[in-house]
UniProtKB/TrEMBL annotation, chains A, B:
Pfam families: HxlR. Keywords: DNA-binding, Transcription, Transcription regulation. The lineage of its organism: Bacteria, Pseudomonadati, Bacteroidota, Chitinophagia, Chitinophagales. It comes from Chitinophaga ginsengisegetis. The keyword DNA repair does not apply. SUPFAM superfamilies: Winged helix' DNA-binding domain (SSF46785). GO terms for molecular function: DNA binding. PANTHER family: TRANSCRIPTIONAL REGULATOR, TRANSCRIPTIONAL REGULATOR, MARR FAMILY. This is Transcriptional regulator, HxlR family. Residues 12-110 form the HTH hxlR-type domain. The keyword Transcription regulation applies.
Length: 117, 117
DNA sequence: AAAATAAGGGAAAAATTATTCCCTGCGGGA
DNA sequence: TCCCGCAGGGAATAATTTTTCCCTTATTTT
């Protein structure tokens, strides 16, 4: 893991949530898993704009924070599945709300941004 | 403005919201303004962990997205106030939910992280 | 005259995150 | 045998974001 130089302030709830949801693909990954996309290769296909390596790394972080847990089915071909933990489940409404706000306000944001020539 | 090299995908609502809330201090700024901290220098004091320059920049972005609007009161000393726009108001429940989830789950996250030695 | 307050920006450096490239190991099919 | 798909990691690089440093303008206070 990368060792931070600037200490993070976890007093603020916003920072805690952002630690979990802030990565470029973390919310998408949680959303996908909640919809039943559990296997790494399926996630790579589902979130094709992200490089597989990136998804792996963010999965590892989500696992570290106890948002998902990884089940390894030994045997061959090796099978791995990720599941949401109760804490992971508990953040889904937030992810849904974030997605919803974004969809509702996308046009506004895009328009504003284009307005600056 | 910095010119992105990797295009952003605003199809996904999550990305739209993160554009607005993703900066390290944007949610804090929106929260502060909603609580009546309107003047730049007050914001600098209220969010003292952030360098003033950073707050200025994030304010400018929030203004670009139409989340806040800036009122300049000419005269001396010059007075500036930021207000939430209706769109800015509409994201407050989301900011509150993000803060709340973080506060509720802070201990869990911290514990998990410390558990990796 | 010097310093403080108000608002803010340019440029560069530092920090952080994301991405790419390539490698491992296992077993199955052509 | 060679290549494919599975799961995943190391190292380096690129991209992005945050921070620091210092400068500007105008008025008021000491």
């Amino acid at each position: 893991m990368y060792e931070r130089k600037i200490p993070e302030d976890l007093e603020c709830g916003i920072n805690v949530s952002m630690k979990v949801l802030g990565g470029k693909w973390k919310a998408c990954i949680l959303d996908s898993i909640s919809k039943g996309v559990r296997r790494p290769s399926e996630l790579h296909t589902a979130i094709s704009s992200a490089a597989p390596r990136v998804i792996n790394m963010q999965l590892r972080e989500l696992e570290e924070y106890g948002m998902v847990c990884k089940k390894i089915f030994p045997g061959t071909p090796l099978k791995v599945e990720y599941y949401l933990t109760p804490t992971g489940e508990s953040i889904l409404p937030l992810v849904a709300a974030i997605d919803q706000w974004g969809l509702t306000n996308r046009d506004h944001i895009i328009r504003m941004q284009e307005a600056l020539q």
